[in-house]
Amino acid sequence: MILLDDACAKVDEPTHGRLGRILVDLDLDFVLTSERLMGNWPEVPSLHIYECLRDPHVRGVATLHYTWNGRHRRLVSV
């Protein structure tokens, strides 16, 4: 497993999907953190996505779970 912390920070947008494709081609399990990217690029055939949400007035962190099938992102029921 590989952790990529803000992996696409200095990478142009057209290259994001290509980086995802490399991870898929190498058959790596990965965790990607980002403030703005979800990893749902057509080059990535499937993915589980967790979005962390925080309200500064409430204790704790809420998460939303999505699945990506290579074409569509779907919210998993909570």
Fold blueprint:
Elements: E1 2-5, H1 13-25, E2 30-33, E3 47-53, E4 62-68, E5 73-75
Parallel strand pairs: 1-2
Antiparallel strand pairs: 3-4, 4-5
Structure keywords:
78 residues, alpha+beta, three-stranded antiparallel beta sheet, 1 helix, 5 strands
Gist?
The protein is α+β, with helices and mostly antiparallel strands and 78 residues long. It is 17% helix and 32% strand. The protein has one domain (2-75).
Walk me through the structure.
- It is a single chain.
- The chain has 78 residues and is of the alpha+beta class.
- It has one helix at residues 13-25; strands spanning 2-5, 30-33, 47-53, 62-68, 73-75.
- The protein has one domain.
- The model has no long low-confidence stretch (mean pLDDT 92).
- The strands form 2 sheets. A 3-stranded antiparallel sheet has the order 3-4-5, with no helix packed on it.
- The longest helix has 13 residues, at 13-25.
- It is built from 1 helix and 5 strands; from the N terminus they run βαββββ.
- The radius of gyration is 13 Å and the shape is globular.
- A hairpin with an 8-residue loop joins strand 3 and strand 4.
- Helix content is 17%, strand content 32%.
- It starts with a strand and ends with a strand.
